[in-house]
Recover the amino acids of this structure.
C-alpha cells in the first residue's frame, strides 16, 4: 500500500517557505555598505515572510535562512557565511529577523483573507522594533560603545529605508492575497 500524498496546500506552503528563505538571501545581496551594519533589502522579505506564512512558519523560514548561512551557503550580506557573520556586528539583527517575522505574522494570523494597512503597519513596526532592539543591544556589546554611537550607526541611517520597506511589504502581501497566490 502506498502512503497517502501530502495535500496540495502543504506543498504550496513548503514552496512558499523555501521561496521566502531564498528571497531573504537575495535581499542580502541588494545592499549598501555604510558602516558596520549595511542597508539591505532583507527586512522587506523578512516582514513579507511573516505576513505570508504567519508567526510560526515565518519563524521556521527565517530559521532555515540562518541555518543555511551557518552551513556555509553565502546567504548573509555580501555573500557572507558562518559563525563570524552571526556573531559579528550584524548578528543581533540577523537573530532579530526571527521575532520580526513572528510579529509581522501576528498581523495575518487570524484573518487570512485580508490585511488592513493599519494592522500590517502596526505589527510590522513592532517586528522591526524587536529586530532593532536585539541588533542594537548586540552592537552595543560588540562595539563597547555608548548608546548615542550605537543608535547613530545601527538605527538612524536605516529609518528612512524601513519607512519605505514596511508599507511595500504590506502592499506586496495585499497584492498576492488579492490574486489568490498565497498558501492557505
Amino acid at each position: 500500500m502506498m502512503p497517502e500524498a501530502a495535500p496540495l496546500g502543504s506543498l504550496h506552503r513548503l514552496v512558499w517557505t523555501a521561496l521566502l528563505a531564498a528571497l531573504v538571501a537575495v535581499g542580502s545581496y541588494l545592499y549598501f555598505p555604510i558602516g558596520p551594519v549595511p542597508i539591505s533589502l532583507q527586512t522587506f522579505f523578512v516582514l513579507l515572510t511573516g505576513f505570508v506564512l504567519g508567526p510560526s512558519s515565518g519563524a521556521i523560514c527565517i530559521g532555515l535562512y540562518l541555518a543555511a548561512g551557518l552551513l556555509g551557503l553565502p546567504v548573509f550580506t555580501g555573500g557572507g557565511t558562518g559563525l563570524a557573520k552571526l556573531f559579528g556586528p550584524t548578528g543581533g539583527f540577523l537573530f532579530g529577523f526571527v521575532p520580526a517575522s513572528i510579529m509581522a505574522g501576528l498581523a495575518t494570523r487570524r484573518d487570512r483573507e485580508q490585511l488592513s494597512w493599519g494592522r500590517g503597519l502596526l505589527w510590522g513596526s513592532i517586528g522591526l522594533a524587536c529586530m532593532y532592539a536585539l541588533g542594537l543591544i548586540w552592537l552595543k556589546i560588540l562595539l563597547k560603545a555608548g548608546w548615542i554611537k550605537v543608535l547613530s550607526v545601527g538605527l538612524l541611517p536605516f529609518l528612512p529605508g524601513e519607512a519605505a520597506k514596511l508599507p511595500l511589504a504590506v502592499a506586496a502581501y495585499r497584492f498576492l492575497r488579492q490574486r489568490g497566490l498565497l498558501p492557505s
Observations:
- The two ends are 29 Å apart (CA to CA).
- The first helix runs from residue 8 to 29.
- Residues 44-178 form a domain with the Arp2/3 complex 21 kDa subunit ARPC3 fold (CATH 1.10.1760.20).
- The mean pLDDT is 92.
